[in-house]
Amino acid sequence: MSFPDRPLTAMIDVAAGPPDCMAYERAGGWEAVRRALKNLTPAEVVDTVTRSKLRGRGGAGFGTGQKWSFVPKEPASERRKYLIANADEMEPGTFKDRLLLEGNPLQLVEGMILAAYAIQAGHGIIFLRGEYHLACKRLDQAIAEARHEGWLGENILGSGFSFDIHVHSSAGRYICGEETALLTALEGRRATPRSKPPFPQTGGLWGTPSVVNNVETLCNLPHIITNGPEWFLALGTGTDGGTKLYGVSGRVCRPGTWELPIGTSLREIIEDHAGGMLPGYGLRALLPGGASTAFLDVTALDVAMDYGSVEKAGSRLGTGMAIILDDRTCPVGMIHNLEHFFAQESCGWCTPCRDGLPWVERLLMAIEAGTGEEEDLEQLDRHARMLGTPGRTFCAHAPGAMAPLASGLKLFREDFAEHITQHGCPLQHAARSLERGRDDQHSY
Amino acid sequence: MSTAEHPLPDDLRADIAALVREELHPRGASVAALRLVQARFRWISTAHLREVAELLRMSVEDLDGIATYFNLLFRKPVGQHVIMLCDSVSCWIMGREHLCAHLCRTLGIRPGETTEDGAITLLPIVCLGHCDHAPALLVNETLHGNVDIASLDRLTDTLRGTLR
């Protein structure tokens, strides 16, 4: 038997569409569920996953086996528990889970069966962002097919374990990606995060034990159970195990997503896989793992994209999807765009976040428009410090929002100062005069 | 059939009742129920909201809190087609402002508005997860990537020619 080195995407053929149950099985699918339900106890599944050192792929990087270990151990038949797939992919610059959802939905279904068996949950929910229409259709199809073939429902494979999956199509709010806000949304309330404890594992959806795992995390499970934790650990280049879906967007030659060993360097991802910068554009800086990670500059290109290394470099791995700032795009404008997003998506529950983020957004807007003043920079520094420290706001939304701001204020200090002394964006002025030359009618 | 007392058609009432039966608590069906109403009427009127609230055994205010919380639930009428142009960072870098200005000019509206003929509503939307094909937009339920001025013009022409 051969061991795959790109387990997550091996069966994905974007042009051909997702495999059906038969094709999935022919390519090695359902092997893990067979093995787990027939030969392994739930505790053995937890142990296998713990030994693989799989960490959450949604951004926080918590150990998956450890996360499961806090769930009360009663069998699914004796206590209502939930296993929830977090498919609310809304981190700007992130397009990895959509690939897994659209490309191989049965892999997610199998991963969910394994996770549910491990924590003995009888109820599965896929919390899907409302804009993912194609993913929704394919998930519904895959689940119906899996149910028809007996992979979901009562007494799966005669094991006595019953489990089924329901797709919850959300209606669009970034904060729903935060696991306690996600649970609140499922309960039909405004999706504000909850204070912990109780942790979801003991008091989650409707007060019952619940685990929320990211789509990519769950998709790793069939391969860990089939090929073993040692194989998984060996896939990574550093201390973390497995592969990671990495991606690049911005002005590079080939923007896209690639499954690579976790710990691949930024340089390899950007230069080899994304093909480097488009002609005429230089790399100025980047957000390594989505909008809520701190900027890294070109000196960080050799950083390994694993949890520890990116943190050591002053940012976070986040979703592993890099956004490139080129040398012809205004960093102040980019940060204004980011903070507009975070201000809009604040749930409004706690005052510092609800009032602070729009304040930050307005200051940046003024600076970009040319009406900024010297004191505005101090005000931004103060916000970055006050809102950026975890514990001063109710959840991690504001600290996430401050990561690109705080790092950007340091990295692009001169650009900020120039905007203020020149009363506007130097790059925007250049772009506008270029535009006027081309099109007299054009107005911003 | 809908009546003054029950503005929701019977089949929709039945569908919402079925959603409620699947949930541990009725309010768990609130987003799904509101989405069903919107799928039929394109937006959620106060009369419909009232009736859904009753079916979910929630107060109207409580349910309106949900309806006004989510980006994709509309509490105002929208056009036959809704264009959602991504305004997040990767699309911004790849020139979405330029496209937005062009759309506003050709449609004669600003983001958040509907064309006079009721054909098209233009809305901003957060990252659509199509950043490797930025700039991206969603038309009703269809995702478009690598959008430029020429493809935008073709798109708006087609939408105006095929009013639902």
What structural keywords apply?
heterodimer; A: 444 residues; alpha/beta; Ubiquitin-like (UB roll); de novo design (two linked rop proteins); 45% helix; B: 164 residues; alpha+beta; Glutaredoxin; 2 domains; 4-stranded mixed sheet; 4 strands; 11% strand; metal-binding (chain B); iron-sulfur (chain B); iron (chain B); 2Fe-2S (chain B); EC 1.6.5.11 (chain B)
Estimated share of beta-strand residues of chain B: 5-15%
Number of DSSP-assigned strands of chain A: 9
As for the CATH topology of the largest domain in chain B, it is Glutaredoxin
Helix content of chain B: 40-55%
Structural class of chain A: alpha/beta
- Please indicate the count of domains of chain B: 2
Distance between the termini of chain A: 60 Å
Q: Count of DSSP E strands of chain B?
A: 4
Kindly give the count of domains of chain A: 3
Domain NADH-ubiquinone oxidoreductase 51kDa subunit iron-sulphur binding (chain A): 332-377
Protein name (chain A): NADH-quinone oxidoreductase subunit NuoF
Cofactor (chain A): FMN
Family (chain A): Belongs to the complex I 51 kDa subunit family.
Describe the structure.
Chain B: Its EC number is 1.6.5.11. The complex is a heterodimer of chains A (444) and B (164). Chain A has 444 residues and is an alpha/beta fold. Chain A has three domains: 21-235, 3-Layer(aba) Sandwich (Rossmann fold), CATH 3.40.50.11540; 243-326, Ubiquitin-like (UB roll); 331-429, NADH-ubiquinone oxidoreductase 51kDa subunit, iron-sulphur binding domain (de novo design (two linked rop proteins)). Chain A is 45% helix and 11% strand. Chain A has a five-stranded mixed β-sheet with strand order 6-5-9-7-8, sandwiched between helices. Chain A has a four-stranded parallel β-sheet with strand order 3-2-1-4, sandwiched between helices. In chain A, α6 crosses α10. Chain B folds into two domains: 3-69, Arc Repressor Mutant, subunit A (Orthogonal Bundle), CATH 1.10.10; 81-161, Glutaredoxin (3-Layer(aba) Sandwich). Chain B has seven helices and four strands. In chain B, strands 2-1-3-4 form a four-stranded mixed β-sheet. In chain B, a hairpin with a 2-residue loop joins β3 (137-139) and β4. The longest helix of chain B has 13 residues, at 10-22. Chain B is elongated and about 50 Å long. At the A-B interface, β3, β5, β9 and α14 of A face α2, α5 and α6 of B.
